[in-house]
Structures are given as structure tokens and as C-alpha cells.
Amino acid sequence: PIFRCMSHGLTEVTAPMPGALSSRIGRLPRPEILVRRLLFAVLLSWPSMLPAVQPGDAAPVVIAPQEDGETFDMASLAGRVVYVDFWASWCAPCRKTLPAFDQLHQRYDERGFTVLGVNLDRRRAEALRMLSRIPVGFPMVFDPEGEWARVYDPPGMPSGYLVDRRGVVRYRHVGYSETDLPDLIKKIEKLLEETS
Question: Which residue would you say has higher pLDDT here, 196 or 109?
Fold first, then answer.
């Protein structure tokens, strides 16, 4: 038997088939089993089907360990403008973003701006080695399992998300060039002028 979809469900239809094709189709699971298998496959791939965080979305609140092992909760930055920066030691442009973002953090900290670094190195020692060469004064968390990378789904490295005082992503940036900084500074200043 073969099946065709009708408006009221599946209907069994019998049709003559060549021997080899008939024997293959005869071994196919029943339609309800196929549907179950399809649903199971969709559920298994669900995290990869979630859309990336986009401007206009509420920023997922990062909760991850810091260097000292203490847990940092991004909710502690409520009411501040935050630039969430995903980086890794193997990312060449990240060697330039860290000092540039540290300067922005220092420049605008008193006005309510913070950079939150989210390191994605599998081995923390590699990140710490880079941070010993390029120290920063902004909060830094470690995500070796990529939990927050899966949530935010950054399209490249480095990737940053500028979050307003209400916790809404207003801007997403991928990559780094020094020519990007003036535009980012304008966006930061604009958000700092807004009230929550």
C-alpha cells in the first residue's frame, strides 16, 4: 500500500508497483512512526533552530563564572547600558577589541556604561594567558561549553550586542575594525542619553 494525504488525514491506496520498488516501500515504517521520528529529529535540533538574538529582542541575562570562580549575573547591571562582547584567544581581531573596549568602559563607566566580556575558549588557561598580556577592567565571564554562545548565537568572532538600560538589544556588531569605533561611540552616547 501507499499513502496519500487527504484533507481528513491519510488514506491508504493500493497501486501496482514494480517488484523491487514494492519490496522497498513495504519495509517503510507506518506513517505514524515516521511522524514520531520526524518530531523527535526536530526536537533534537531545536537549539540550532532558535533565531539569533537580534536588535529589538530582550537581551538574555548572562550568568557565568568569573576568573575567581564566583558567578556573575548580568542582572546586576540592570539600568546600565551594556556591551556584551563575545571573544576568544584564538580570534586575532579580539586582541584589538579588548583594549579598545576597555577604554570605552573606562571612559563611560561613570555615565552608566559597562562592557561585559564573554570568553568562549574551551581552556580557561588560554583566555587567562591573553588577559595577562591585555588586562581589562570590565567584568569578564567564561563560557567554555558555549552555553551563552548558543543562546546569543553570534554570527562571527568577535561579536557584540549593545543593550540599553531597559535590557533590550539595540545593536549587534560582528567583527572589528578601528573604523567601527566612532559609530559604536555614537550609539553608546545615544543610549546613555535615554532614560530607562
Answer: 109
138 falls in which pLDDT band (50, 70, 90)? Answer: very high
User: Across all residues in the chain, what is the average pLDDT?
Assistant: 82
Phi, psi torsion values for 145, nearest 5 degrees? -90, -5
CA 4 to chain centre: 41
CA distance 81 to 69: 25
Residue 21 burial (CB count, 10 A): 9
Q: State how far the Cα of 192 lies from the Cα of 196, in Å rounded to an integer.
A: 9
Burial class (CB in 10 A: 0-12, 13-18, 19+), 136: middle
Q: How many other C-beta atoms lie within 10 A of the C-beta of residue 144? A: 15
Which amino acid is located at 40 in the chain? F
